[in-house]
Automatic annotation (TrEMBL):
<feature type="region of interest" description="Disordered">
    <location>
        <begin position="1"/>
        <end position="20"/>
    </location>
</feature>
<protein>
    <recommendedName>
        <fullName>Actin</fullName>
    </recommendedName>
</protein>
<dbReference type="Pfam" id="PF00022">
    <property type="entry name" value="Actin"/>
</dbReference>
<comment type="similarity">
    <text>Belongs to the actin family.</text>
</comment>
<dbReference type="InterPro" id="IPR043129">
    <property type="entry name" value="ATPase_NBD"/>
</dbReference>
<dbReference type="InterPro" id="IPR004000">
    <property type="entry name" value="Actin"/>
</dbReference>
């Protein structure tokens, strides 16, 4: 067998070991996302907003992003998880479920579940519990650093709320969200915005192709002049979660991933070490890249070599994760081909990568190469809006756009109010929103 050195994307990680402790990694993964309240105080923003204040909650199946509009980033990002305390050996005395960040911080002692994991069968009671338990935590000085104290005065639930939803969200999910808003949270008024549209708005654009790859789904959504072209869009239920599973499968001879903690470590390994090469993986050659080592919770040093490159290949070849769904490049090809030829160039010329899974190094280059191999013409007109220095923001693009929409008086005028809900009920409102 011929040997080859992996063709890595630019800016590849060259360190050969990761010594950061798993618990520190857990803490970092969420706290780093919070903005400093000393830089942008919520109080001063409320004054400037002249009444157009809203809480923006971008709902994700892996993590939710929340904060007041007017800030440049969400104030908090919390995992959409519920944790059940583990009882090892002796019966547990702690039967209290833990929610969101609280569950994640206690991950070594938890079995965790993701209630939004299966969009067709969401456990809304569990999601409601996460939100209900998390909002007061965010409002209190739970994060006890001094810089957060000013924020402790803010009560998210007294302001209008802007929620985001993925394209083709089911009527059942919309209804449940409206009920959560008015029945449980008792909000004054709400708006539900499309995530792809919000992401585009975050870049100051109203036309383009939004390619969103998150935890459980990947969608390709063409938008023209603020109009979402639903018939030309594509969604598959493949995302970062499938890659986590694939990585564990690839490493199964070296390590047994049993616990929730182990499985989340596989996620972090994926985020830190894996990369997308510009070209298809060549199975006929021996991989000669550098291996990296990763310390697992039980102190096992796990060596990860070719798996770094193989794991994200599944985005471009879904059969690797035993799925028949179209791969990403086929979705892009299909959407652009369906778009009317008179607007195709404008849409393809403003592609936007959003969602955490697009943060792999090399994502953009590989996508261009794959689409070009399907159609030279499409490959030529495909251009990306964002420069790669903004990769780290891709998981919050939708929140940023929703926060911009929350600044507009039109958004507030169009909101669903408590009175609308009393008069029409969730079913009718959700049907109207779908037209
Ligand atoms: N640097 C990174 N490289 C690769 N993947 C990453 C990186 N950072 C985060 N991810 C992955 O991105 C996914 C989360 O992305 P995002 O926050 O957009 O999802 P979400 O909005 O919760 O999910 P969904 O849109 O499917 O409901 C996770 O699978 C996570 O492991």
């Amino acid at each position: 067998m011929e040997a080859f050195s992996p063709d890595k994307p630019q800016g590849s990680q060259e360190d050969d070991s990761y010594e950061i402790s798993p618990v520190d990694k857990l803490r970092q993964s969420f706290s780093e996302s919070c903005i400093s309240h000393t830089q942008e105080s919520v109080g001063s923003i409320l004054e400037e907003m002249d009444g157009l204040t809203a809480t923006v909650l971008d709902i994700g199946s892996y993590c939710c992003k929340i904060g007041m509009n007017g800030l440049s980033k969400p104030e908090y990002i919390f995992p959409t998880v519920i944790g059940t305390p583990k009882c090892i050996g002796k019966p547990s005395t702690d039967f209290n479920l833990k929610y969101g960040l609280d569950a994640y911080k206690n991950l070594p002692n938890m079995n965790i579940s993701f209630p939004l994991e299966f969009s067709s069968d969401i456990d809304w009671d569990e999601f409601t519990d996460i939100i209900v338990e998390t909002l007061p935590l965010l409002n209190s000085s739970h994060f006890s650093e001094d810089s957060f104290n000013e924020y402790s005065e803010t009560d998210y639930s007294i302001y209008p709320f802007i929620f985001t939803e993925r394209i083709n969200n089911s009527l059942k999910n919309k209804e449940a969200l409206i009920e959560l808003a008015f029945e449980t949270l008792e909000l004054p008024k709400i708006s539900i915005q499309n995530q792809a549209f919000c992401s585009l708005i975050s870049q100051g654009k109203t036309s383009g192709l939004v390619i969103d790859c998150g935890e459980n789904a990947t969608s390709v959504v063409p938008i023209f002049d603020s109009r979402i072209l639903k018939d030309e869009s594509n969604t598959i239920l493949v995302g970062g979660k499938n890659l986590n599973h694939f990585l564990m499968e690839l490493l199964r001879e070296k390590y047994s991933f049993h616990t929730s903690y182990d499985r989340e470590m596989a996620r972090f390994m994926k985020e830190e070490l894996c990369y997308i090469s510009p070209h298809k993986f060549d199975y006929t050659k021996i991989w000669l890249g550098d291996s990296q080592s990763y310390t697992m919770p039980d102190k096992t040093m796990l060596s990860i070599g070719v798996e770094q490159q193989l794991c994200p290949e599944a985005l471009f070849n879904t059969s690797l994760v035993d799925l028949d769904d179209a791969s990403l490049q086929h979705m892009v090809f299909d959407s652009l081909t369906k778009v009317d030829s008179s607007i195709r160039k404008e849409i393809a010329g403003q592609c936007l990568l959003v969602g955490g899974t697009t943060q792999f190094r090399g994502f953009e280059q590989r996508l261009v190469n794959e689409v070009s191999s399907l159609s030279k013409e499409l490959g030529k007109i495909l251009e990306f809006v964002e420069d790669s220095s903004k990769e780290a923001q891709r998981h919050i693009s939708s929140w940023i756009g929703a926060s911009i929409l929350a600044d507009l008086s039109q958004t507030h005028r169009d909101m669903i109010t408590e009175d609308d809900y009393e008069e029409q009920g969730a079913k009718r409102i959700s049907r109207q929103l779908n037209t």
